[in-house]
Amino acid sequence: MNFVKQNKGFTIIEVVLVLAIAGLIFLMVFVALPALQSGQRDTARKSDVGSVASAVTTYANNNRGTFPTTANMDNQLEATGTGTNKTFAKLSNNINTVTVVNPATAGTYTIPDGTIRVYKGMKCGSNGVNGSVTITAGTSRQFATVTQLEGGNKSGYCLDT
């Protein structure tokens, strides 16, 4: 009786093929992950702009139409820290400065990363790249709340109220 001995196992080509496929999957995940995280931070920033606009409206309603100052906004948003190293209890960790601005004229303004600005008496125009936002004159009760997003060439984002 002759027994044929069969070798069990994988060939080197099969092993290399499986490793190549696994490497491609890991590569796709690591390429897509930063874009996904950037999108999540942009969503949080848009939500923060809405929260700031709501805080401005609440302050004005509680103070006979008086517009808040930057210090008032810090209190409304429960800020701790100083300067550009603030933490806001009512905002995400992506924002470190909220400033109330009374611009002299309408125009195009560049918003620094991690900042939300509230422009009194203005309304939103167009959003540009590198955090630029064009605002136009509005009524004394209107305001534009703006920030910079990460996606889309660091585009500006503006919310009218």
Short description:
With 161 residues, the protein is an alpha+beta fold. Helices cover 39% and strands 26% of the residues.
Annotation keywords:
9 strands; 3 helices; elongated; single chain
Strands, count: 9
Q: So what's the overall shape?
A: elongated
Uncertain residue segments: none
Mean of residue pLDDT?
A: 87
Structural class: alpha+beta
Order of helices and strands: HHEEEEEEEEHE
How many helices does DSSP assign? 3
Largest sheet: 4 strands, mixed
Order of neighbouring strands in the sheet with most strands: 3-5-8-9
* Intertermini distance: 92 Å
Rg estimate, integer Å: 26 Å
Q: How many independent structural domains?
A: 1
Helix content: 25-40%
Q: Beta fraction of the residues? A: 25-35%
